[in-house]
Amino acid sequence: MKIKIYALIFFLHFSSILSANQIVDQNTIHKNLRCLVCQGQSIADSNSDFAQTLKMVVKDLINQGKTEEEIYDFLSDKYGDWILYKPKFNLENFLLWFFPYIVLVVGGFIIVFLIKKRSKKV
Amino acid sequence: MLSNTGNLILLLNILLSFLIIYYSLKCIRLPNNIISRNIYQLSLLQCTTILICFFTLVAAFLVSDFSLITVYQNSHSLKPIFYKISGTWGNHEGSLLLWVIILTIFSFLFLILNKNHPKNYRLHTLIIQNLLILGFLFFILLNSNPFSFVNPIPKEGLGLNPILQDPALAIHPPLLYIGFVGSSIYFSAAMASMITNYSNKLFAQSIKSWVLISWTFQTLGILVGSIWAYYELGWGGFWFWDPVENASLLPWFAMTALIHSLLVLEKRNSLYFWTIILCLLTFILSVMGTFLVRSGILNSVHTFANDPSRGIYILIFLSLMILTSIFFLFKKYKPANDIINSNSKETFVLINNWFMMFYLITVLLGTLYPIFTDALTSSKISVGPPFYNSVIIPIVIIFLFLMAIGPQTRWIKNKFTNFKNIFYIIAGSIIINFTIVYLFKSYSFISNLIIISSLFLIISSVSDILKTQNINFSRIVSHLSFGFLILFIGLNHNFSEEKDFNLKLGESKKIDNYKFILQDLELTQKSNYKSVVGVLNVNNLSTNEDRTLKPEIRIYDNPQTLTYEASIQTNFLRDYYLTMSNIDRSDYYNIKFQKKPLMIWIWISVIALSFGGFLSLFRNAKNN
C-alpha cells in the first residue's frame, strides 16, 4: 500500500514537471551565452557593456515569442558557435557529447568481464 | 645583489641534484641495504638551499628590489607588506620556485620517512624525483628565471593585479601546489616500484600517506580558490567549469580514484598495475594542467600569467614523462590473476574508479575539445557549465547510490543482504525530498533525484556508524560530507533567486517580493584605491525585513584597474549577494541581487571532506 502511494506521488510529480517545462527562462539563456569581450564569463555573470546589450537582445527575442533554441540559432549565426557554452549536437561535436558515455559503457563492460574471469567459482 | 645570489643558489641546486643522482647510482650497486650518509646530507642540503633561494626572492619583494624583473612586473613599493610577500608566488616565475621547493622537500621527507623499505626502491624514487627537480630547475633558469636582471633599474614596479591582492589568493597556490606537486612523489615511487619490482602491499603502504596528504591539500586548495572566485569575481557562483578550474579538478579525480584502489592493493595485494597507472596519471595531469594554464592556450577567467614559449618547454617535459611512463608500463606489465568477486569491496572500489575515470574523461574532453576543433576545423566552440552539468549530473545520481552501498560490503566475500534496509533509506530520502520541495516551492525532476540520492548517501553513512563495531571514521566523514556537499550544491543551485536590473541614484524598484532603493553613492579614498560605495536598501515585502547592502566599484592605482566588489551578507541559512556596476554613458547602475540558500554549508562540507583525509592520514600514521 505504502509503495503504491509513493509511486502515485512520484508519477504525479513527474507529469507536472513535463508540463512545466515550456516556459523560456531568461536566466538559463544568459548563463549559456559567453560574454565575448570578457575572459571566460557568461553574460549573466559579466558587468560589461556587451553583456548588457546582449541581455536586451535576448529579452527582445523572448518577447517576439522565440523559443530557447531559436534564440541560440539566431545568436550563433551572428557571432559563431563560440558564443554558446553548451555546444550544439552536431557531427563535429559528436565525440564531445558521446565519448564520455562510451567510456562509461566500456568501463562497465571491463568490470563485468574482470569479475566474470576472476571470481572464485563456487 | 639579490639577483646574483638567487642565480648562484639555483645553479648550486642543479649541482646538488646531479650529485644526489650520482651517489644514488653508486650506492645502488653496493650489495648491502644501507643508504650512505652523504645522500641524506646532500638531500637535506638541497632542501635548505632551495628554501634560502626562495627567501632571497621574498627578500627582493620585501625591499622592492626592482632590478629583478619579476619584482618589477608584479610588485609596487606602496603595496601592503602582506601582498609583497604573497606576490612572491603570485606570478609564474615565483610559483615555479614554489613548485621546486615542494618537489625537493617531498623528496627529502620520502627518503627519511621510509626507512623500513628496501634501499633500491628508495634510491630509485630519489633519482626519479631529482630528475623531475632538474627538469624544473632548468625550466626556471632557461625560461622563467625569477632572478633575471633588468637594466636600467626601474624606479617603480608595475604592481600586482588588484583582484590577486587577496588573503584567500595568497594561500590558494601553496595549498594547491602541495596537492598536485606533492603527487610527484608517488609518480617517482611508482616508477621506482616498476623498476625494482617492489610491487607488493608494502609499496602501497609506502605511498599511502603521501596520496592522502596531496589529496587533502588539493581539496583545500580547490576550496579556497572557489571561495575566492565566489566573493571576488562577482558573479555569485563558485565553480564555472573554467579550464583553469578543471585543471585543478583533473588530478583530484585521479587522486580520489587512487586513494580507493590503494586500499585494494594494501589489503588484498591486487590491482597493482591499475594503481601504478593512477599514480603516474595524477602527476601527469598536474603537469598538463600547468601546461594548459601557463601556455595561454586556453581562454580563461583565471589567466593571469601566460606566454607561449613556456608552453613548448612544459610540453616537451610532459611528453617525456608520458612516454617514459608508457614504456615502463609495457615493459613491466604482467597479467594478474587475483580473485575479484562481485559484490565484494574490491568490486565497489573498481566501481568508484570507473566513475572517477568517467568524470575525469568528461572534464578532460570538455577542456581540450575546443582546442582540437579550433586546430582541425578552425571552428571555435565553447564548452561551459551547461555542458558539464547535463553530462555529469545524471551520472552523479547513480554514483551517490553506489557510494552509499559500497562501504557496507566486505573484502573477498560476495555477500550482500541488506536490501530491506536500503529500501527504507530510499523511502526516507524520498519523503525528506518532498518535504524540502514543499518548503521551497520550486523544483525540477533532476534536482529531486540529486537530493534523494545525496540523502540516501547521508542516511546510509550515518546508519553505518550505528551498525558496525569497527568504525572507519575517516571514510564515514568523507563519504558523509561528500553527500552533504552534493545535497547543498543541489539545494543552492535549485533554490537560488536572482534579480538583474538597472537603477539610478534615489530610484526604487519593485521586483517580485523585493523592493530595492539605491539610497546613496559614497566616494571613499583608500591607500591604494578609490571607490564608489553604493548604499542599497533591500526590503523583503512578504516579511517586511529591511537590509542594507554596500557593493563597491573600486579604481585601483597601480596598475590602474576597475574592479567590482560584491556585498555579501552570510548566515547559516542563506547568503545575500549583491553587485553593482556602472553603465557607460548613463547614470544608471546595473544591479545583480542574489539570494543563495545554504551557501556557507557548501564550504563547510568541503572542509569536512578534507578533514576526512586528515583523519585517514592520522590513522595510517598510527597503524604503520
Spans of chain B of at least 5 consecutive residues whose pLDDT stays below 50 are none
**Quaternary structure type:** heterodimer
> Major β-sheet of chain B, in short?
6 strands, antiparallel
The Cα radius of gyration of chain B reads 26 Å
Largest interface: A-B, 51 and 60 residues
Portion in helices of chain B: 55-70%
Say how many strands of chain A there are: 0
Find the count of extended strands of chain B (DSSP E, 2+ residues): 10
Q: Number of DSSP helices of chain B?
A: 18
How much of the sequence of chain B is in beta strands? 5-15%
Overall 3D form of chain B: flat
End-to-end separation of chain B in angstroms reads 47 Å
What is the radius of gyration of chain A computed over CA atoms, rounded to a whole number of angstroms? Answer: 22 Å
Q: What is the H level of CATH, i.e. the homologous superfamily of the largest domain in chain A?
A: Cytochrome C biogenesis protein
What is the domain total for the residues of chain A?
Answer: 2
Mean pLDDT of chain B: 89
Number of helices of chain A: 5
- Please report which band the strand proportion of chain A falls in: under 5%, 5-15%, 15-25%, 25-35%, 35-45% or over 45%: under 5%
